[in-house]
Amino acid sequence: MPDFSLPSASRRSVLRGIGGAAVLGAGIPLLSACGGSGASSDPKTVTLGSKASDPVPKKAFADIYAGFKKDSGITVDVNTKDSNTFQEQINAYLQGTPDDVFTWFAGYRMQFFAAKGLATPIDDVWQTIGGNFPEAMKKLSKGEDGKYYFVPLYSYPWALFYRKSVFKQYGYEVPTTWDQLVALCKQMEKDKLVPIAFGDKDAWPALGTFDQINFRQNGYDFHVDLMAGKAAWTDAKVRKVFDLWTEILPYHQEGATGRTWQDAAQTLASKKAGMYLLGTFVAQQFTDKAALDDLDFFAFPEIDPAYGQDTVEAPTDGFMMSKSPKNKAGAVKLLEYLGTPAAEEIYLKSDPSVVAASTKASTDAYTALQKKAYEMISGAKSLTQFMDRDSRPDFTSTVMQPALQKFVRDPKGIDSLLSSIERQKKTIFASN
Amino acid sequence: MTTDTPTKSPEAAPEPPPGTAPVTKRIPQGHKRLLTRRDRLTLGFMAGLPTILHVALVWVTALASILLAFTSWNGIGFDSIQWVGLENFKELFTNNPQFWPAVEHNVIWFVVLICIPTPLGLFLAVQLDKKIKFSRVYQTAFFLPVVLSMAVIGFVWQLVYNPDTGLINSVIGANKPGHYIDWIGDPNLNLWAILIAASWRHTGYMMILYLAGLKGVDPSLREASALDGASEWQTFKNVIFPVLRPTNTVVLVVTIIEALRAFDLVFVFNKGAEGTELLSILVTNNIIGESSRIGYGSAIAVVLLLISLVVIIPYLVSTFRKERRA
Predict the structure, then answer these.
(1) Beta bridge partner(s), residue A294
(2) Distance, CA of B83 to CA of B70 (rounded, Å)
(3) Nearest alpha-carbon partner for A160 in A245, A306, A268
(4) Does A105 touch chain B (CB under 8 A)?
(5) Interchain contact A432–B (C-beta under 8 A)
(6) Which of A204, B129, B144, B306 is 20 to 30 Å from A179 by CA-CA measure?
(7) How far A231 CA sits from the closest chain B CA (Å)?
(8) Shortest CB distance from B289 goes to which of A88, A203, A254?
(9) Is the Cα dihedral B263, B153, A81, A50 positive or negative?
(10) CB of B190 within 8 Å of any CB in chain A?
(11) What is the pLDDT of residues A105-155, one digit of tens each?
(12) Interior/surface letters A42-76, b for 16+ CB within 10 angstroms, e for the rest
């Protein structure tokens, strides 16, 4: 038989322990309540969670916060995390004790967290900074409820990149229609060039190719509906996109699913490839100044004249305010500052691979590449973000990325692939 | 109980009054005098805290994930958990194009590990056991990969397999258009490419296990079989290998575990893309992320758990049976 007295003694101590824990537990909310209202909320400090862990953007952001401090006397306490980790943990981060302000993306990904009540609406900030931004940027900064949740800082368009010297050497002309693009690919192949550099090891670059062909062929509205889960992937319109893609796929660099975008960019840099479809950040791979000056790009060619080249894919990065910031007044001031042309100019000085989201920011210091990117964005009728920012990330990462890798490697069997995508889409979009 | 009373503080008062039948019967307890109150507290703490941690971190999480497998949850707030019954499993078995390949790859992983690096490790161990020259050097060389983390091995082998700039393609000239070998992207190749890397490491692991086993073989057995005129192969087949039986069991269990938990190497290599899907990677891809499918990921984890149980339960049953017999 078990000993009766031993448990009884330890039961008392356990009870005492539980009592102690209860006191402690009661103490925690008390303590945090203290923190929220008094001592630790220093009106001269705003905390900011940043995913800008790469050296170039990290320094560029630090310069902005220094500018803010000079302006307002408020210190920005930056908490930088590796950008992939930041993205993976954003969910838990925003539900825990997030910083007052955090870096994030425009579009669906911003709206998702806004709709879950994990961000503070910032209409008051937009009353001050609204004049600095074009209509397309305003649209990108609103949640589904029509309130503002986001302050955009910069964008980078996606386009077909090429080297001017290569086009000059072979006498190529920039293609503006689909047929011209196909003809150019054929010619490049004859000239022993890889027509289109391609690396899809990370699985997201192929999403960009799909986006381009889809909104050129089917228009912005259909693209948005498809991304929102409203249109069907089994629609003949989508099938047409894959047919067109199949037509140019043979001209893409072989073995794409085993190559990173950085390696693919190197084939363009070393003049082995003629073109490369990517965001302007491809310029980061051009470390040689002469090669960088030789880099140029053009918008993805027109497919259906009804839509021409009116849509530009331009992912936009910026800032949001967390659900209950400790220093709300300071956070508002910071966001107002981040929405000024001055803040954007500071950023662009250190990171020339992107362009300002504000039309008021000075373009004087822009490189030729930046100027062209800026024109492309400001001339666009509609801006898209990127498939994984325009649609549910759980859908794009678990369904679309593997599906497109499968297609890129083996373009046969499109119909069964599309019906598989559609079936999986239905269950994902049906969940909360 | 009553012996404690003088030291008790007043708060202990509400107790059954001494003298009731069941209590008086249990009073004489020898070991109670050996342990002071403080000892008991310390012991309780030392046993209790790990138990609480173990229950909370192992059992509660495992049970929670089993429960979550029947729900749909995006990880934001507990009120967004929805009960969906068997929906996740239905979806998984009928609709997920990556699921069955993942199961298949886990099985292939096990079969390859048991068929190639395990005999190879045994072979190396037998050779090293013969006390050849530089035995220590070889031992170290073969064991070195085991010291490295799987993630590091993934990085190293990526340099070898990189289709454009990697060692193999550069040497055999397979990085030009026309005759291009895509070791990382081609689903007919990439799993085998990764398995070579995994085997490279596993061989050393097996070698060390068998070497330890061989050291434990009684030298008189060898002597006896030599006296009986057995050849080296006969000695190994009929005497040494049967003696290694306990080692073989350990090797089998270790290999099954390695095959089921395979993750890091593949994740570093190509994130479980076409051709290298694994159950562990599907779990991760669904659970980690900005808007995660925790219910669905848990369902995959439950499948992995069931497979593990199918393998582990017979092993445990047979082990316990043996112990009881002994």
Answers:
(1) none
(2) 6
(3) A268
(4) no
(5) yes
(6) A204
(7) 20
(8) A88
(9) negative
(10) yes
(11) 998 889 989 998 999 999 999 999 999 988 888 888 999 899 999 999 999
(12) eeebbbbbbbbeeeebbebbbbbbebbeeebebbb
Angle, vertex CA A176, rays to CA A173 and CA A181, nearest 5: 70
The DSSP bridge partners found for residue A319 are: A103, A151
DSSP characters over B213-226: HHHTS-HHHHHHHH
Q: Is A131 on the interface with B (CB under 8 A)?
A: no
- H-helix or E-strand containing B3? none
Interface check for B91 against chain A (CB to CB < 8 A): the answer is yes
Question: Tokens in use for A211?
Answer: 């986006």
- Closest among A177, A218, A156 to A356, alpha carbons compared: A156
Mutating which of A82, A88, A188, A254 best tests the B interface, going by the most B Cβ atoms within 10 A? A254
Q: Is A416 on the interface with B (CB under 8 A)?
A: no
C-alpha separations of B206 from A99, B76, B125, B212 in Å: 49, 44, 8, 10
Find out whether A318 and A107 touch, Cβ atoms under 8 Å.
no
What's the pLDDT tens digit per position in A25-70? 333 333 333 333 333 567 889 999 999 888 888 899 999 999 999 9
Determine the Cα–Cα distance for residues A20 and A17; give it in Å rounded to an integer: 5
Residue from the list A88, A423, A432 with its beta carbon closest to the beta carbon of B80: A432
Distance from CA of A247 to the nearest CA of B (A): 18
Q: What is the pLDDT along chain A (432 residues), one digit of tens a residue?
A: 333 333 333 433 433 433 333 333 333 333 333 333 333 567 889 999 999 888 888 899 999 999 999 989 999 999 999 888 898 888 889 988 999 999 999 988 899 899 989 999 999 999 999 999 888 888 889 998 999 999 999 999 999 999 999 999 999 999 999 999 999 999 999 999 999 999 999 899 999 999 999 999 999 999 999 998 999 999 999 999 999 999 999 999 998 998 999 999 999 999 999 999 999 989 888 888 899 999 999 999 999 999 999 999 999 999 999 999 999 999 999 999 999 999 999 998 888 888 998 888 888 888 889 999 998 988 888 889 999 899 988 899 889 999 999 999 999 999 999 999 999 999 888 876
The pTM for the full model equals 0.81
Which one of B4, B98, B293 has the shortest CB-CB distance to A5?
B4
Among residues 19-58 of chain A, which lie with CB inside 8 Å of chain B? Answer: none
Size of the A and B interface in Cβ pairs below 8 Å: 143
Residue of B nearest to A430 (CA): B72
- Closest approach of A325 to chain B, Cα-based (Å): 19
Residues 267-306 of B with CB under 8 A from A: 270-271, 273-274, 285-286, 288-293, 295
Q: What is d(CA A92, CA A101) in angstroms, rounded to the nearest whole number?
A: 15
Q: What is the DSSP string of B156-173?
A: HHHHHH-TTT-HHHHHHT
B270/A201 Cβ within 8 A = yes
Q: For chain A, say whether B7 makes contact (Cβ under 8 Å).
A: no
Q: Tell me if B290 and A87 make a contact (CB, 8 A cut-off).
A: yes
Q: Which residue of A has its CA nearest to B288?
A: A88
Total count of residues recorded for chain B = 326
